[in-house]
Amino acid sequence: MKPAVLVLDVNETLSDMSPLAARFEAVGAPAHLLPAWFAGVLRDGFALAAGGDYADFADVARAALHSMLSEVDGLGQSPREAAEHIMAGLSQLTLHPDVRPGLEQLHAAGVRLVALTNGSTENASSLLERSDLAGLIERVLSVESVRRWKPSPAPYAYAASMCDVPPEQVTLAAGTQTVRAARV
Question: Which of 159, 170, 175, 31 is nearest to 96 (CA)?
Fold first, then answer.
């Protein structure tokens, strides 16, 4: 059974975050810190949601970077400046190479595509526009509107509502190496 709406995670699922490793190295930090940093950002965002609290993705990501970089010897600048350099790279990310053909195939099959990000609508929209995918994606939504990070149920209910479909007709696609689909 084909979903009425496929809700796509943005960070890591659509966007290739690997270029941020060069930004870690540019400030004097090891590239291998990238996965640990991003996992920590997600952990902290999930914990906020579980506790009923909220903070913007950029604020959580920046705080995690600052904390992590404060422990790195040999930075060429302050941890705050280094964090800002890395954060600036988020707005320059591109798609994984297999995203476009997959989305084109889904769109051609009549599946409605919606992006839902823990980050900002602005960054997600910019990624899709730079990648010339804006025409395939019906809308770009952010957890900012409901002030709860995914995987809290609120963002998914919001997405279903914005698409005017019942939640059981929405499927989420999220993952890093392999896109996994799970019923909402």
Answer: 175
